[in-house]
Amino acid sequence: MGKLSPTPLELVDQWLADLQPDHSATTLRRYASVLKRFFTWYEGEARMALALPDLNPIVLVGYRNAIQTTEATSTVNTHVSTLRSWGKWLKQQGYMADDPAARLKLVKRPAPTQPRSLTSSQVNALLRETQHNRYPRRDQAILQVLIQTGMRIGECAMLCYEDICFGEKHGSALIRSGKGNKARRVPLNSSARQALADYVAPLLGVQATLKEVAAAWPCPGSGQCPSPLWRSQRGRMTVNGMERMVSALVKSCAARDLVPAATTAHSLRHTFATRYLVTHRGDYVGLARLLGHSSLEATKIYVQPTEDELTERVERLDLNAYGG
Question: Which residue from 182, 165, 155, 167 is spatially nearest to 220, judged by alpha carbons?
Fold first, then answer.
């Protein structure tokens, strides 16, 4: 009686063993997970286990298209790359005459669309909601700093008193922990400074006016700076804590249809960027500097019209006989 051919599952084990000397355990687990999911999908589609003769380009394309409906582009391409590597190995080892994944293509990333920014009423709804929080002054100050500067939530969470230059007429924040470890200084307008004044005035023992808070603000290098700027019961407010706070505000407002349910802390950054370009048309360089972008390409996403704006523009074409 002849020796039975190895099953696809057994061949996966052999392939992973061959890869082990040159690949990390994490990578091998990812490969195994991808192929396990592929086998499970096939069994659900064909109502039988995958046999090696059934491994063909049509099956692989079908699997790629199936997961493309539920997974991010990067995840789909991870699966495609894994199947390509395994298919190449199967041919090299003589288990298959042709590589079934040789022409299995990666999927292209969709063109980025402009992030959806919040309207003034939606921003105000979030600010009003902070008054129901345990620390209303702190949370409103955080929201105002995010909205009025466009800084990332991680950058905001790392702020210390000594990073803030606080004046009655002007102010700025030094972001030391920017993306790519690049520091930058961003202006603090009067709305951001007043929210900060309302928050820190009781801590500094002064009235919540810009003048008094500016006079009492700890000077950098004086040893008076009670860092960090944002505090919770357990000490420094963490990025996760800040994100949870924003998420809770969004959830409460979204339940009353005051803001979109998909709103995140990053939506505040998008809102700042969009409003900045509406007010200062064409100033991509200035916006890139404020946002900490190393490339103008990342900034130009805010110039693209939204789907709603495109719909409105098409509706207003003079070709549209029924347009208003």
Answer: 165
